[in-house]
Amino acid sequence: MVREYYDKICAGEEVRSNLISLREELKEEQNRREFAYLLGGDFSALCALLKHEDPKVRKNAALILGRLESEDLLSVLFEAYKKEETLYVRADYLKAMSELDFRPFQEELRQRLSSLREVDEWKPEEWKHISEEIRILQTMVLRCQGIRHHRFAGGREKEDVILLTNRRHREATAEQIKKGRITMLAGGLRVDGAPLKDVRAIRTYSEILFPLRAKTLQVNEPGLCGELLAAPVLSLVERIYNGSGTFLFRLEMRVPERKSSADGGSEAEQTITFGAFKEKKGIWLRRLSDALEKASGARLLNSVTDYEIEIRLILRQDGTLAAMLKPSPSFDDRFSYRKEYLPTSIAPVNAALTAYLALPWLKEGAQILDPFCGTGTMLIERNFACKAGTMYGLDIFGEAIEKADRNTRRAGLLVNYINRDFFTFRHEYLFDEVITDMPRSTGDGSKQALRGLYHDFFTRIVSFLSEKAVLVIYTPDPNYVVESVRAVSALRIEKQFLLNEKNDTTVFIVLKGQ
């Protein structure tokens, strides 16, 4: 088909549609190799189409030339880009150049970017296409500059922060904060004047956000929102990163559940609706992003895939926006050890919360077993909450054990991991504690088998426990725990904590001989 489309293009038959079909074929690497062999280095027919009267022909020809990975085409594409008068085609020339080593033209690209940014206001019909051109130019310039991400460097001693937590156990985080004024929120808490050093050490919140102090942000004025946010964002990132230069950001907007289509649509299709104001979410975000970049003097640059800070906006009922900043992973590095995990792995913040809730029953230096250890998160967080003695982790999946070992080494800990089924495990010494995330049901057909597993586990685990041992059980099947423990006379449930009422996730404290 590649030859057929190309022959028709050369013959002038339905050039635009055949170019589009050829572009589609060239998505496959094998087809690109075949096409390159067919051309034999002769790009004249496609290069001639860069002067075609139909802008869509020029656009598709440029994109095909970019896929051919020939550096000889770079100057041809750049010259055509400079002469192109149709706004919506310019970005496609840049996309084509991005496929090649465009560094020889980096200074001219930088100058072009600066000249576009200097224009105070574009006509509405021009804005969409100029915005896209700026976005691609910016990415290309960044690739040449090799901007390095900033790292947290201490910042000011105290800041106002919002900590998102488990809704049912906000107090678990609040009681760890010794300084600052705490206000409880529906999904967490706000701390005014929080010592950042202390807050960063707390492991039971899922996210930390910094409120951005700006004048009232109205949803129907995305451009003005960007202008008002630039100064507070720069002020904050300069404080917490002790840095200057360029910061890469992404925008996240949370809108009440109103979608533009019956099936919900993609994020780009979602519509922001408030009173008479209505605009597609993607367009709204681009308008705000452009204004933010311009107002910051390009010190804040939008980068969807390589960002280091997130600016999060939440639409209130009165049409105003709450604005917050989520810092980079270098700031919130509490769980940086967890590089590897499985789809069934427990979230590290849930493991940390489990260990914290169990803290009154944990003992320093205890010998601990996790019979279903997965990738090791539960044991690691248990040790962070209260320093353990010897730790053992079992799992029937060899891949999980390998990942657990690597995660644990990154955490600077030592755990004895064994690739074995708990029900065939033997051990010479008794354990003071068991902490585990219990296996889950995979469907209605396996529920009875899972119920039997719970019963067999609690029956067998008793023989591994020292007197007055403690079991910390994390499970989405609390009824199985209650049934199984009742059937074992040596065990009793001391306490249970419901973490999530939607899926019944519960933490149990089970005691032996007490």
Give the helix/strand layout.
Layout: H1 2-10, H2 15-25, H3 29-39, H4 44-48, H5 55-67, H6 74-83, H7 87-98, H8 106-118, H9 124-145, E1 158-165, H10 170-174, E2 181-185, E3 188-195, H11 196-201, E4 205-211, H12 222-241, E5 247-254, E6 271-274, E7 277-280, H13 281-295, E8 300-302, E9 309-315, E10 321-326, H14 348-357, E11 368-370, H15 377-385, E12 391-395, H16 398-410, E13 416-419, E14 431-437, H17 447-461, E15 465-475, H18 478-486, E16 491-500, E17 505-512
Parallel strand pairs: 5-8, 5-9, 11-12, 11-14, 12-13, 14-15
Antiparallel strand pairs: 1-3, 1-4, 2-3, 4-10, 6-7, 9-10, 15-17, 16-17
Briefly summarize what is shown:
The protein is an alpha/beta fold. The chain contains 18 helices and 17 strands. Helix 16 (398-410) links the parallel strand 12 (391-395) and strand 13.
Structure write-up:
With 514 residues, the chain is α/β, with parallel strands linked by helices. Helices cover 40% and strands 21% of the residues. The protein has helices at residues 2-10, 15-25, 29-39, 44-48, 55-67, 74-83, 87-98, 106-118, 124-145, 170-174, 196-201, 222-241, 281-295, 348-357, 377-385, 398-410, 447-461, 478-486, and strands at residues 158-165, 181-185, 188-195, 205-211, 247-254, 271-274, 277-280, 300-302, 309-315, 321-326, 368-370, 391-395, 416-419, 431-437, 465-475, 491-500, 505-512. The strands form 3 sheets. An 8-stranded mixed sheet has the order 2-3-1-4-10-9-5-8. Strand 2 (181-185) and strand 3 (188-195) form a beta hairpin. The longest helix is centred in the N-terminal third of the chain and has 22 residues, at 124-145.
